[in-house]
């Protein structure tokens, strides 16, 4: 039995509750690990002072923008890929995946160029005070250099989940997160690189995650195949990817805007207030990661079964996810 056939049977016949849960758990772990990247930097950088800690919170908004772009293209490609796989069109799915992969690198490179050219005003817009600015600039410079890799990682992550291989995505992201915990104190304190060391540690960890995720495709462990020759030559494919991903970008973008607004408001009360908002934001990200993780476990189930025209399973998966996330939100609010 071919890999695509086995995955098709799993996604279109297994009980909905267990299937969504099995895909959601690795996704939640992946999202929590992504949140822990910044939490690790916050913890170790806090030893350098309040202004340095505030800088991590400011640059967190920048990382959220990179994530928003990566998820826009990743979700835009992934939702389409899962529908194509459900319709038994793996060749078309590979075309969409390849197109999204190279599109994410291009968009990431544009963020790098724009960010580095206008880094000082950008940091002020994101909420940096005059005392936080030097730290934020040092930290953001390396994060911006890694933007193409980060955006492409989010794309690969989403394609793996779209195929129903959330565990592969979890391994890549988790290894990078654990590595970041080890590299942070090494670069910050042992090599005495300060806040720039934290950024380098994060960038290197993201590169390792990217390499692990990409290896799944290069070693033939995925249904979708990547390659410049497989990319679409028609503009409508790229436009559809962006259109599909626009809701995700809007959600992530608004979250980033709200974080920036809070940082700007807190800056009026000093660096300590900005640092405090940074810590509170990390706590919120834990809750956010769990709820979004369940939703992203649901997405490939929805896509496969919609593509396979199994609409009864589409409805069942929707109501299962709605009840589960509502219950989780209520539980978190009560505690």
Number of domains: 1
Tally of contiguous helical segments: 12
- The radius of gyration is 20 Å
Q: How much helical structure, as a percent, in the residues?
A: over 70%
β content, as a range?
under 5%
Structure description:
The protein is an all-alpha fold. It has one domain. About 85% of the residues lie in helices and about 0% in strands. It has helices at about 5-15, 15-45, 50-85, 90-115, 120-125, 135-145, 145-160, 165-190, 195-220, 235-265, 270-305, 310-335. Helix 2 (about 15-45) packs antiparallel against helix 9 (about 195-220). The relative contact order is 0.19. The mean pLDDT is about 90.
Task: Please give the structural blueprint.
Blueprint: H1 3-13, H2 16-45, H3 50-86, H4 90-117, H5 119-125, H6 133-145, H7 147-162, H8 166-190, H9 194-218, H10 235-267, H11 271-307, H12 311-334
Helix pairs in contact: 2-3, 2-8, 2-9, 2-11, 3-4, 3-6, 3-7, 3-10, 3-11, 4-7, 5-6, 6-9, 7-8, 7-9, 8-9, 10-11, 11-12
């Amino acid at each position: 039995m071919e890999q695509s056939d086995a995955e098709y049977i799993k996604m279109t016949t297994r009980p909905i509750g267990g299937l969504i849960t099995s895909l959601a758990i690795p996704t939640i772990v992946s999202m929590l690990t992504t949140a822990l990247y910044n939490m690790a930097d916050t913890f170790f950088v806090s030893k350098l002072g309040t202004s340095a800690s505030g800088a991590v919170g400011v640059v967190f908004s920048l990382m959220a923008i990179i994530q928003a772009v990566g998820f826009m293209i990743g979700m835009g490609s992934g939702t389409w890929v899962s529908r194509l796989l459900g319709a038994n069109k793996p060749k078309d799915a590979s075309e969409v995946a390849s197109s999204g992969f190279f599109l994410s690198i291009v968009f990431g490179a544009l963020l790098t160029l724009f960010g580095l050219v206008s880094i000082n005003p950008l940091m002020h817009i994101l909420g940096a005070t005059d005392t936080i600015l030097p730290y934020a600039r040092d930290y953001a410079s390396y994060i911006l250099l890694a933007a193409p890799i980060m955006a492409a990682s989010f794309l690969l992550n989403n394609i793996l989940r779209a195929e129903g291989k959330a565990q592969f995505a979890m391994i890549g992201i988790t290894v990078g997160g654990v590595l970041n915990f080890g590299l942070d104190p090494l670069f910050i304190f042992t090599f005495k690189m300060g806040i720039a060391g934290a950024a380098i540690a994060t960038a290197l960890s993201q590169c390792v995650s990217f390499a692990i995720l990409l290896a799944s495709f290069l070693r033939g462990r995925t249904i979708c195949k990547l390659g410049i020759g497989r990319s679409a030559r028609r503009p409508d494919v790229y436009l559809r990817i962006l259109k599909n991903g626009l809701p995700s970008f809007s959600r992530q973008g608004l979250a980033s805007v709200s974080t920036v607004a809070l940082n700007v408001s807190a800056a009026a009360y000093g660096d300590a207030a900005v640092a405090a908002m940074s810590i509170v934001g990390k706590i919120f990200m834990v809750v956010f990661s769990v709820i979004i993780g369940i939703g992203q476990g649901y997405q490939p189930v929805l896509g496969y079964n919609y593509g396979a025209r199994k609409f009864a399973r589409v409805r069942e998966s929707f109501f299962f996810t709605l009840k589960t996330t509502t219950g989780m939100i209520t539980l978190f609010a009560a505690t």
